[in-house]
Amino acid sequence: MRGKTETLDILSCVVKEARRLGLDAEAIWSSYREATMRSAWGEVHQTPTADAGILEFRLRRGFRAARISVAESNQKAISAAVKRCSEMLSEVPENPYLPDLLHPPTDFPEEIGNLQGVPEFPDDLTVKERAFAHVKRSARGTQLVGSGRFFTAGCEMGVANTAGLARYHTASYSFLSLVVTGAHGLSSYADRASTSPEGVDVDAVIDEAFARAARAQQLPFFDPFSDGKGARRYDSVFTHYAVGEWLYWLSMFIFNGLSVFEGESFLSGYRIGDRITGDRFSMRDDWTHPGVIPLPFDLEGATRSVLPLVERGIFRGIPCDGMTAKKSGMKSTGHSLFGSWGAVPFCVVVDGGNDTFETLVAQSVTPTIVGTYFNYPSLPDLREAVFTATTRHGTFLVEDGKYKAVCPPLRLRMRSFEALERIDGMTPPRLIRGQENYGMFYPISLVVPAMRLSDVNFVGSNPTI
Amino acid sequence: MDNNIARRIIDDVLDFVEKHGASYADVRLYLDDQGESLSVKNEVVESASIGSESGAGVRVLKNGSWGFASFSDLSRPESICRHELFAAAREALALAETSSRLRSFPLELAPLGNVPLVANYETSYSVDPFSVPISEKIALLKDACAALNDASGKIAVRTSELTSGRFTKMWAAFERGLPQRRYITQTFRSCAFELFVLAIDGDEVQERSFGHGGIAHAGGLEFIHTLNVQDLATQLRSEAHELLTAPECEPGMADIIILPHHLGLHVHETGHAFEGDRLLGYEQTYVGGTFINEIIADIGSYPFGSEAVNIVAEATFPGGYGTFAFDDEGVPAQSFHLVEQGIIKNVLTSRETVQQINRRIGRNYFTQSNGTMRAASYTRMPLIRMTNISLLPGNVTLSDLIGRLDRGLLLEGTQSWSMSEDRKNFDFGVQYAREIRNGKIGRVVRNAGYTGNNLAFWRSCEAIAGENEAYMLNVPNCGKGMPGQSMSTGHRTSPALFRNVEVFNRKQRGGS
């Protein structure tokens, strides 16, 4: 990573080169440093690190625009890239939806707290070694084995353009997840996140994952679908992890401003102010919430607004980027991804309740499924917001408020917004961080409660052979 | 960076790690990674972008453990690149030392066999997409996009896209006990053409597209000349219209024929189960394990599918996104059966997993890596990845398959996909389905999906159409690993008939 001065110098170099050619430009510098330690069944097998930066810019002449991304950041390379991109520009037709160049913000201070310093984790290897040794010790004398992933990353992002805008921000992220597997092959899970490796509550991760795995070992095995009778409905209690996976998918695809505008999303059929869920559900995009990865501007340089999405069941808002704003007549909310992917909430905060997780479980008079995690979710239909996934890392049958059996992974398929009408209870929300990182750091965070939902549609199980 | 300079720096770094106790090390340099993406939506060119990238990664095996570090930008002066590569090597050594304290047994690399010391490979092509003027490619896309539209006002979104890529990877390795180092340079090329329509009529919304990320090809732009773009666009548009007014797909058990633009993805998702690292728990903390663990002791005899099912890993098959000459451990590309006449015969291995997998099997089933280790970029360690995992053609025709069914469904076009972590349970939504009645194609039905148990599914495969109806579905974005890696794979299939599969309505209409 380069730090604020060097990053803004790199961006300034693009801006000057563009001006020299009589062009407008918007430039983004993103760089990251990340380090992972990963174990499989108790044995560390990967310790990769990566250090990379990408300079991406869009040159514009009127409504014509062309983009280029390069890993090089020296003056000579930038000049060459600007030249290449400008040559391409003449071949590209006009795009009437090209967003306006943004001017320096007046609505938000440029410097925010301590978020401008480049994060460094000099001791992260020691912290990780200690954590993985702890996992091994915890497994000793049990029939359980732990597989862990401890990820640390710092990222910086700068945005500048020929209208005089120049913004810079950093973020850091540490995340430990642990899968504990029993002799029967069933797994358990826990994770915790923080802004630094030292801040990750390693003990909590280990305690939670091993406790759930021990419970699974003590209970009899029961496959509700072994009777061959097909789909059935259960009241269900889903942990923060499962609720986070579900709402992440809804955020990316259903609350995507472009998807709503184009008519593909469930929300396309509704107007702001319509009721879309039961009144227990409220969700907003809030980068200022404590613990989330706080990126105060989007990739067009627009200030990211704190955006109510659903308030007590009422549809309140949708994220929007510059291009969608031009097409739809809406205003940008500062959620641009600088591409054609639309605008999505990255810092999803859902109001919770006052129940504890065990209280939610104890409310189960009729047979109830407790699900820890959702694996490989999908939305078979965006317009109906149909969600499917299999449960993972601990699926239990509860009856009369007590854990009765451990189940194989179960597949559910449900209309999401109908399910959100049937929230029977919630815990306080907890920070869940986005887990997928495909070559660049995306500041995704979710603050979500565990939920009790009635009448969830389960359609099959995944029995052992 | 000049190749001679690169070679000199690599040699110096390999000297360095060898002197500092590594038993094996490889260096990967991505010298000139080029990409271009053009996108037209509703006749407007929304995106025209190009990109280039360079960087290097160093992987070191010391005390039986891996360490890996990387850096970007090889356009800088030789002295800076040299400094960065040595810094990465030092970091990789330190990471390996730390890891080794957290292992109870050292990783061991399976022997290599007879491999060349120096080799070069390049994807064959005849039209370099980067030499074709952008205006020409945009004109093609605008025409295609216009052909997706009509006067109905119901084709709400229409998109045409063309993406092209080219990258050169220089790989070198030393290994204690081997007399000489090895040097391999490979250049890969790919192109993909994508068409998409979203049709809306009131509350009814339907999509149609081809493939999974378009019609894609490992090679140059010549493939576009084999396509009748106007016909393809017209087909999608008219099918989208049909879907808007089609009756609902009724849930229940059905005999189904799946066409290659979707079947390739089912083979892909099944292929993950054969990854040897998943077998060993390497992916427990992300994408999961594999149900092959439950049957691995019986590899060589266990009935995975029906006798019609032959699934191969064919890294040598031309045109696939999983085609190469050497993997990222320098193991030559191979073609072998994963499933032969229904019997599981192999899993995908790497040098470090061979012995571990043999221990799980309980005998020395594997002797060498079958060459499937690939990294998505210089910032990533190689992982076991699918190559071209294909369902070999049978000897009937699609017409024969249709003629066998009194009642059934013909399924095409992927809408959604979801798998259990062990890849046993699957759930696919499809875009386009037609009924089959009395051996003939009938009316279109909408919102179909199918779900079930993968072993039962492959055992229900009755017949597969022949070579003439085969199609290579190339997947550009297969996710795996943490940190994540997006990899390209290929999947050649022909239409295939499966009996008694659970069909559902993906909008949850008319039942579950």
Give the topology.
The complex is a heterodimer of chains A (465) and B (512).
Chain A: H1 3-20, E1 24-40, E2 43-46, E3 49-61, E4 64-70, H2 75-89, H3 124-139, E5 145-161, E6 166-181, E7 187-194, H4 202-218, E8 232-238, H5 240-254, H6 257-262, E9 283-285, E10 307-311, E11 314-315, H7 322-328, E12 347-350, H8 357-362, E13 368-381, E14 386-399, E15 402-407, E16 410-415, H9 416-419, E17 423-426, E18 430-433, E19 445-448, E20 451-461
Parallel strand pairs in A: 8-13, 12-19
Antiparallel strand pairs in A: 1-2, 1-3, 1-5, 3-4, 5-6, 6-7, 8-20, 9-10, 9-12, 10-11, 13-14, 14-15, 14-16, 16-20, 17-20, 18-19
Helix pairs in contact in A: 1-2, 3-4
Chain B: H1 3-19, E1 24-41, E2 44-62, E3 65-72, H2 78-100, E4 118-122, H3 134-147, E5 155-175, E6 182-201, E7 204-209, E8 215-217, H4 229-245, E9 252-258, H5 260-271, H6 276-279, E10 311-314, E11 335-340, E12 343-344, H7 353-361, E13 373-374, E14 383-384, E15 389-391, H8 398-403, E16 407-419, E17 425-437, E18 440-445, E19 448-453, H9 454-459, E20 461-464, E21 471-480, E22 485-493, E23 496-505
